[in-house]
Write a structure and sequence with these properties.
single chain; alpha/beta; Rossmann fold; 6 helices; globular; binds glutamine
């Protein structure tokens, strides 16, 4: 069992279900802090971008001067985006009438809300391929984005009905689903153990 107490995980807390991520980090004994301004990025080891409304989060990123600081952070530090968070990490958004401006930290293209609207939201159990092992995790798809293009070199860690729903490259991980709504911390634990390995081994 890893000891997470040396970690501080930032959670982008502009809009969305950031409190759910905090609850899960509390469950694992990792410290967390909310990121609302550029200065809040200074003392964190990794960042979670939560689910919510990517249009609103994108606007607030600009309003609070966070765009460049977030891109700089993501050039070397671990970031995990869930749902709207995945949209914000992507390269390009299909039919982007709402003009969401992605951070372009992960070379995938996205279609928003493409698993159906609120009434078609669903929960399922996914098999994640984590470090070569198959691991089960609960997953909630809520107006979830679909990945329309994946660049070479981006790894697929889980699929749902043959579509990639969990991907990663280097220090960036993105899931079209939420795992933070329940107490299943499987994927959060993987994120911490896999991407923050240097800090955990100190
Ligand atoms: N469809 C939402 C968006 O485009 C994302 C939904 C979610 O984060 N659960 O922002």
């Amino acid at each position: 069992m890893s000891d997470f107490k040396n970690l501080t995980i930032g959670i982008l807390a502009l809009q969305g279900d950031y409190e759910c991520h905090k609850n899960q980090l509390d469950l694992l004994g990792a410290k967390s802090s909310y990121v609302r301004l550029p200065k809040h990025l200074a003392n964190i080891d990794a960042l979670i971008i939560p689910g919510g409304e990517s249009t609103t989060i994108s606007k607030l990123i600009d309003r609070f001067g966070l765009r460049e600081p977030l891109v700089d952070f993501g050039e070397s530090k671990p970031i995990w985006g869930t749902c709207a968070g995945m949209i914000l990490l992507s390269n390009e958004i299909e039919a982007n009438q709402a003009n969401v401006k992605p951070l372009q930290l992960l070379d995938i293209d996205i279609a928003r809300t493409a698993f159906g609207r609120q009434v078609f939201s669903f929960e399922t159990e996914l098999i994640l391929n984590l470090n070569g092992k198959e691991v089960k995790s609960e997953a909630s798809f809520i107006r979830a984005p679909r990945i329309k293009r994946i660049s070479k070199g981006v790894n697929i860690l889980a699929t749902y009905e043959n579509e990639a729903v969990l991907v990663e490259k280097d220090n960036i991980m993105a899931s079209s689903f939420h795992t933070e709504l329940e107490n299943d911390t499987t994927l959060l634990k993987f994120f911490l153990e896999n991407y923050l390995v240097d800090i955990l081994n100190k």
